[in-house]
Design brief:
There is one protein chain. About 10% of the residues lie in helices and about 55% in strands. It contains three helices and 16 strands.
Length: about 280
Amino acid sequence: MHKYFIISFTFTLLVFTCSLNSLASGDLYPIGSRSAGMGRTSVAITDFWGAMNNQAGIALFNKPAVGVYYENHFLLNELSTKSVAGIVPTKFGVFGITYNHFGYRLYNNQKVGIVYARAFGNNLRIGLQLDYLQTALGNNYGKKGNVTFELGIQTDITEKITIGVWVFNPTMVVLADYDNEKLPAVYRLGFVWHISDIFLATVEAEKSTDINSVMFRGGLEYELNKRFFFRTGFSTRKEIFSFGFGMKFKHIVFNLSAIMHESLGFSPQTSLIFQF
């Protein structure tokens, strides 16, 4: 029993530390293996996982879709991220629902979101997501819930260049009553350049209210025969290098990727999207 307690306590402490790094310190990672393969760039990309990364990115979808995502941080199941989302286009815009879970039984964070996105003309898209966040400690320590929102905009300034802006939690809701600890606001600004029909480059900057420095990310994607995709990326913080591969067959999109952390090693990601 004593040995089990030490192991459980160690894992809980590790998950708690990673969770604080991802929430309290403002490192809110984008979702999706495509994004991960390109250095976690996401803000100007138009794809399914825009439902969680920049809601404006799903405004052009004209068919329903569902997707699942899994990330194994540093090859530890206790530090895994699991996500699922679904979107439905209507004549009034695109509606969606998202769910994200990080952690394990003794410590976990969950986020549930309701999404709405709409295109205004051919060049402007706006998306909004209402979030419910919950942090839970196992062994009857309790849980804490918060409500906040995300807002994203994308605009095509030319046929080949798209600019994206996204903000999470601009009101900075209270994370814990002790010392009036607040959930930080996170801002992203970036662009995608479609160099050709088969090759794109993307760069973005991220600023959290809890971190003084600005983080930069960049990524490349090469398309082969409209079916296979090869990706790579970088970041100026701890995640220094990434790569990924994708396949698209009719209604199914499958992606694999991995990110190299300078101290803790690799974190693999995978995602599967089904488009009706």
